[in-house]
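Re: pyroglutamic acid structure - here you go.
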Amino acid sequence: MNILLTGFGPFPRVPRNPSQAVVEGFPDWLGGAVIHRHVLETVYAVAEREIERLLCELRPDVCLCLGVALPGVLRLETTARNRGDNAGPDHSGVARTDAIAPAGPETYAATLPLDDIAAALRAQEIDFSVSDDAGGYVCNHVFYAARHAIERHGLATRCGFVHLPEVRPDRPEAAEIEDFLRAVRVIVEVLNRAP
Ligand code: PCA
């Protein structure tokens, strides 16, 4: 099993992105899976190109993308939407509101076993929610671009997106990252078992 695990670097509101720390702290192997870890620039055009290149070169069984959202709990994203949302400039100063792929479908669904992932997180008493809106910024953009690339290139890769919450200010950052790493390990273990 080959798993592509991505996170994002900083962007204007978030100088230290916990999804980057999780990707950098994740092992290269877990169970029987090889984990290909990549931190994407939070730049629409760069991240979109990079995710397509990684998918085509690695042809992974699974692509699990991580990003950070608002304070709260971890979010399993069900849906990528074909649009930006005027969510402010990316890390290069570019804002986008246009369709991500003008001829593409309005939405793509995640193709990960979200029910199994939810059950495993619950069993480990890890808080999470299921979300059908990945936002209108670079995370949704990359989620959509990944699903679109998988369809266009006829890849068998299963693909989904998980938003981590912002690091809580009342806890040491290292403890928060440890918790996020544990949650992502639980998710990857489910992906590893999935047929
Ligand atoms: N979060 C942003 C983009 C990069 C990240 O980690 C988002 O939710 O779109």
